[in-house]
Amino acid sequence: VCILNTSMDLPIAELDLRDPTIGDRVYYTGYPDGLYWPGVLHHFDGRYAGMIDKTFPIYNFPIVGGSSGAPVYNEEGKVIGIISAVTNNFEHVGIGVSSKQVYNFFMSY
Predict the structure, then answer these.
(1) Helices H, strands E: what count in the chain?
(2) In percent, how much of the chain has pLDDT > 70?
(3) How many Å apart are CA 81 and CA 95, to the nearest integer?
(4) Cα(78)–Cα(94) distance, rounded to whole angstroms?
(5) Is 77 strand, coil or helix?
(6) What is the tens place of the pLDDT at every residue in 28-47?
(7) Is 89 exposed, middle or buried (0-12, 13-18, 19+ CB in 10 A)?
(8) Minimal CA–CA distance to 99: which of 77, 71, 76, 75?
(9) How far is residue 90's CA from residue 96's CA, in Å, rounded to a whole number?
(10) Cα(109)–Cα(75) distance, rounded to whole angstroms?
(11) How far apart are CA 64 and CA 19, in angstroms?
(12) With 90 as the cut, is the pLDDT of residue 78 above it?
């Protein structure tokens, strides 16, 4: 997560503090594996798989190194988490932090 300070008025992504239900469709946007070109933004979709120890959400969608930090959205377009890790041997399983953890992080500042 990166915190920026700007004088511009920018749209703010809304957090959804509710946990998704297993099987819910989820989305993320970003530049996995450093695949960046001006005017291009990659969009991916998959499913919410559940939670490890009620702390770390698991997402099933195409994900590789470089995806960390990407926001994960629900079907309402609200942020439900942030990608923080990917499995090396199966690139359709990602681990994240929940929107509640993101909220607590921002509220600590």
Answers:
(1) 1, 6
(2) 96
(3) 10
(4) 18
(5) coil
(6) 998 888 888 999 989 999 99
(7) exposed
(8) 71
(9) 16
(10) 29
(11) 24
(12) yes
Residue 53, both tokens: 């120890």
Query: Which of helix, strand or coil describes residue 1?
Result: coil
Contact 86, 92 (CB under 8 A): no
Cβ-in-10-Å burial (0-12, 13-18, 19+) of 28 comes to: buried
Q: Which backbone phi and psi does 83 adopt, to 5 degrees?
A: -70, 135
pTM for the structure as a whole: 0.85
Average pLDDT over residues 53-59: 90
Integer Cα distance of 85 and 63 in angstroms: 9
User: In the block, which residue shows the tokens 């809304």?
Assistant: 14
Compute CA distances 30 → 43, 70, 83, whole Å: 7, 6, 10
